[in-house]
Structure formats: structure tokens, C-alpha cells
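Morning F.,

Quick status update on the modeling queue. The single chain you submitted on Monday has been processed. Sequence for confirmation:
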Amino acid sequence: MIDAYAMKIASLVGAACCMGVGAIGPAYGVGYASSRGCNAIARQPEAEGQVIKTMLIGQAVTESPSIFALLVAFILLFNAPAVIGLAPLCALIGAGICMGAGAFGPGVGAGFANAEACEGVGRNPDSETVLLRTMLIGQAVSQSTSIYALVIALMLIYVV
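C-alpha cells below.
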């Protein structure tokens, strides 16, 4: 029999899956961009300011899927389930898995775009504006899947 205690456990498991998996991709992406930024600065020390600016802007965007995962994890932790049953229990765990996995890929992808932009600025500092714009457009498109995951996770929490 499903009771309030089981629902709370489902919320906790969902939150753990959400943030545990949802932090890996963005963390990898941010770290990868940092390493490539360091490489670019080592190759072209006079472009340090431009590389760091590109890296930090890109890293801010790369972190957005983990922020979505954090939001869903907080909702799962602090929002008492309104309905008790097997379907809502599964929905709480599913919401965590959905957002966690949905943050993983976009975090990695945005980090790759950021890393390549840093390398490009290190190779050709004059192309910073074009590279930054191209990176941001690519990151915005790659982030769309994390927004889809956020929408589905919220629907699982509040609709099921």
C-alpha cells in the first residue's frame, strides 16, 4: 500500500536523481571549456582578456541546465504530493530522472561549443565577436532540450 511516507521517499529519490545526474553534464562542459581556455591563453597570452570573457559567458549558459535541475529538485524536496498513489509516486521519480537526464546532454554540448569558441579566440583574437555570437546561438539551440525536459518534469509533478 502506498502512503505519505512512500511518496516522500519517491520525492527524495527523484530529487537525488535530478541533481545527481543533472550536475554531471554541465560540470563536465564547464571544466572542458576551462581547460580549452587555458590552452588558448597558453598559445596566445595577449588574448587572455578576450578568451576569459568568452569562456565566462559560455560557462554561464552551460550552467543553465543544472539550474533547471536544481529547481526541479527543490520542488521535489519541498512540495508535498497532493495525491497518494502508484502513478504519482512513479511520476515523482520520473520527473527527477527526466530533468536529470535532460540536463546532462545540453550541459556537455554547450560546454563543447564554449571550448571551441575559446580555442578560436586564442587562435584569432580578431574573430571574438563572431565566435561569441556563433557560440551563443549554438548554445541556445542545444539548451532547448533541457527546457523540454523541464516542462515534462513539471507536468509529471503537477499534472499526474
